[in-house]
Amino acid sequence: MPRRSNVSTLGKCFQLAVILILINAAYITYTSTGSGLLQFFDTSFLFDHDEYYTNVAIDQSDSKDSIFNNSPSLDEATKYNTIKENHLVSQLTTNEEQVKLPKDVSSSNFTRYDDVVIVTKTLWAKDMDVTQQMLCYISHAYNDKRRYDIVVFTTIPYTEEEIASLQEVVAPTNLTVVSDGPPLEEHLAAMTQEEREFLYKRCNVKKNETLTWQHYCTEPDSHHYNNLGYCWQAEFRAYNIWTHPAIRKYKYMIWMDADTRVAAEWTDDNDPMKVMVENDLHLLFAGFPYGSIGDGIVREKMERVYNRSVCSIKERPNGSLKPLLCRNDTKFAMQQVAGNHHISNLETYRKPIHQEFLRQFVGDYRFSRKFDDQIAVTIPAVMEDDGTKAWHERNVGLSLKIAHHRMFDNNGRDKSPANKWNFFHKIKHNFTGLEERCGKYVTRK
Q1: CA dist., res. 142 & res. 386, Å (int)
Q2: Can you give the pTM of this predicted structure?
Q3: In this predicted structure, what is the pLDDT of residue 71?
């Protein structure tokens, strides 16, 4: 009888070893997943990489601590997210279906709070591209899940086509474009002749020349030199916005300057509205100190309304603001919060005492830029609860990565890319799905 070759014997041993390895791997998979599914090697990656994300099954029926609910409602249709390549894919599942997800998927559970609105303001539709980008960034980072209403105030009305181009960015989120006031001609008609002549002098309007929002205007005893549209936005944001009919039904306002850009996802653990609501805050802000004001007239106005005044503001170690009351010999130099982003409790600013102060604050004449809207946001917040409910986002653990003036979160040590093109291409690699979501709104023009 011919002898078996050593090669044949080794081959049999090798086959037996492979079988044992496969059995062991299957057992480990079975016991470690607890899924009741006997899984062998998945070879789908050899054919179509996309199919990998439809072949990993998770059975949650035996786990009470699962991130999935056994019978999701229609309102939860977007709660199961599959991260596939650079896309965020949402799907609705039922308890009869197997949920197909990659291993590194995380829960998309989040809390949507009531009476929240995201607000911004523009002068006109010529700012469209910048506004579209801001809306797309914050939608991708946060609001595509929460679906908070959005209100865009504008001074010069948009056409229906222009409004539709903004709504398309955030759809199906509700977005409304609202005029922030009457046309300039109606503003002027409501003023006295003396008030108009003073305004024309400030804006250097020549004889037979029509005043426009683009005229640049000065003010007595002030270094400010801004176009009239910018002066109006300071007045509007300081006083008119809080009770405007377009946002009257809301309690909380997430303010975003139109030229801000968000560079990272706001997760449930990094949700500013969660901090705002659950701590019953008056104000949650991005930056402090962000400039200061030294005009004693503001002190006088505080004294008239509040019967006390704040001369300076510090920040406590816990991230809240600490107002220092004025004494007879105290120098007035009040620090202010940044204005490009903040979250405010509208009910606080609508209180009659604060409305009276803000009415007096905006100036003794129309379209004043002398007193900034930033200090108007700051003062009511520190007049309530000794500033303990006015919190600095980063110093209470929120890093929202909001870019403005080449900084993230108004932190001079955290630089952001300088322009819209560089910004987009710098952050897209670490911001999953950004290119697909917002790339069409970023151009070189």
Answers
A1: 31
A2: 0.76
A3: 27
